[in-house]
Design goal:
alpha+beta, Jelly Rolls, 2 domains, five-stranded antiparallel beta sheet, 10 helices, globular
Length: 245
């Protein structure tokens, strides 16, 4: 659903996005005048694999998941997008169709910049072009790591490895996973069942490696999570968990 946002507000909101931070006011004004705004409801598709890449997209509010589909028709989650991220740049650069689908995990607000204006932005502002190149390199590395995770033979180990990849260090040194994927979303990312994800996360919580806290997961023992991800650690005996409590 299209959303109407006045130009001053659009300039303000776009200027806060990491890709556009520090862009001069004239350029930012042109970008704001060119974008269209779209409100996306939870579970609604944003774009489909194979569709034409006519826009560079900015996620201003909400969360999105990048999906691919296997030959057997099974969905695999490739990446999570959070507010401030941009996507669709690959099709802008090479002119090829979209390489994956994107759906909304929450109600979201997306800004769409037409291809011609996106190219003008890249040419006009070297800082933006540099950020796009660095972003592509980062995504390529992450894709390589993700492929390695998917090759792990044990489903629980894939869940542990994905959770480890989602960890961030919060202020004060606390290791957290902000807005962790729901069990079904994590199952799609790990190419496994929701039940497997449930069992794997229970292992971590019972062993007090992680704990849930509102909209985040606190990783109390990052080294233990790393061992689970690397070594295919099985669930600790129940009496061991009991003693820890």
């Amino acid at each position: 659903m299209k959303s109407q946002i006045d130009l001053p507000t659009a300039v303000l909101r776009l200027g806060k996005l990491p890709l556009l931070a520090g862009v001069d006011k004239e350029t930012l004004g042109k970008v704001a005048a060119a974008v269209t705004w779209r409100e996306v409801k939870k579970r609604e598709p944003v774009l489909f694999k194979g569709s034409s890449g006519d826009h560079l997209l900015f996620l201003v509010e909400g969360r999105l998941q990048v999906l691919d589909v296997t030959e057997s028709g099974r969905e695999i989650g490739l990446n999570l997008l959070t507010a401030g991220d941009y996507f669709g740049e690959l099709s802008i650069i090479d002119g090829e169709p979209r390489s994956a689908s994107v759906i909304a995990m929450d109600n979201s607000l997306v800004a769409l910049l037409p291809k011609a204006q996106a190219w003008e932005l890249f040419r006009r502002d070297p800082l933006v072009a540099e950020r796009v190149l660095l972003g592509l390199a980062r995504k390529l590395r992450n894709a390589s790591i993700y492929q390695t995770i998917l090759c792990l033979p044990n489903a629980s180990q894939r869940v542990f490895a994905l959770l480890q990849r989602l960890c961030k260090v919060a202020p004060g040194g606390l290791v957290v996973i902000d807005f962790p994927p729901k069990q079904q979303e994590l199952a799609i990312m790990a190419n496994t069942s929701r039940e497997t994800v449930s069992r794997a996360t229970k292992v971590l919580t019972d062993a007090r490696i992680v704990e849930k806290d509102n909209h985040r997961m606190i990783v109390r023992d990052p080294k233990a999570l790393e061992r689970f991800a690397l070594n295919d650690v099985v669930a600790p005996p129940l009496n061991t968990v009991a003693r820890r409590k």
